């Protein structure tokens, strides 16, 4: 999907009612998807069926499962109501426009849910940096979960989408080191480094933000969702990050 005009950072690219939106870490996502699909109006069923299925063999029919695996984008949102058993508030979302977007490990856009309530929300995509007319509008399919991981790990996480992300180039080695460091700092923040409520580990957060900048990753909304899910919305680190997040 290419930009039809210039977009400023943080601009709304699309906002749509999802075709399917299921709990990624729910007890039975396949059954949930099937029930949602069966409840769709006929024309919306056709929109789902028109999406690609990277699992379908040549000449053989597509399957709902294959379409969902190929097209669901993981979205983590602050305060999103989730099943009590879920480790994070995460939805797998299939959308008529959303699912036309390609993946990039340094994406130009970020997807989020418009509401703290799953039932009343829509999926929206905003640019995370300025995008020029004609440039591709891309998303990180895994919703940021594997964003702070080296290339090999990202490629493994993306294998279910039926393509191999071609992050190459001279910078690949340095990028791997930076993302490994991002993962390390991130895990420190989530498992103790930011536990002290009076002192939200500002050095670690600043290092993390600097690494985001060096990687040209302006995805603070996704980072915010993860922090909130793991530390709780009231944690000072979450508040610190919230001030840098794009408008919802
Ligand atoms: C969610 S769909 C994306 C929309 C699809 N390109 C279309 O034309 O409708 C996912 C599929 O797009 C392709 N794709 C997405 N991002 C890609 C990338 N970075 N490199 C290669 N193929 C990609 C893969 O075939 C993948 O199975």
UniProtKB/TrEMBL annotation:
<dbReference type="InterPro" id="IPR053185">
    <property type="entry name" value="SET_domain_protein"/>
</dbReference>
<feature type="domain" description="SET">
    <location>
        <begin position="1"/>
        <end position="142"/>
    </location>
</feature>
<dbReference type="Pfam" id="PF00856">
    <property type="entry name" value="SET"/>
</dbReference>
<dbReference type="InterPro" id="IPR046341">
    <property type="entry name" value="SET_dom_sf"/>
</dbReference>
<protein>
    <recommendedName>
        <fullName>SET domain-containing protein</fullName>
    </recommendedName>
</protein>
<dbReference type="InterPro" id="IPR001214">
    <property type="entry name" value="SET_dom"/>
</dbReference>
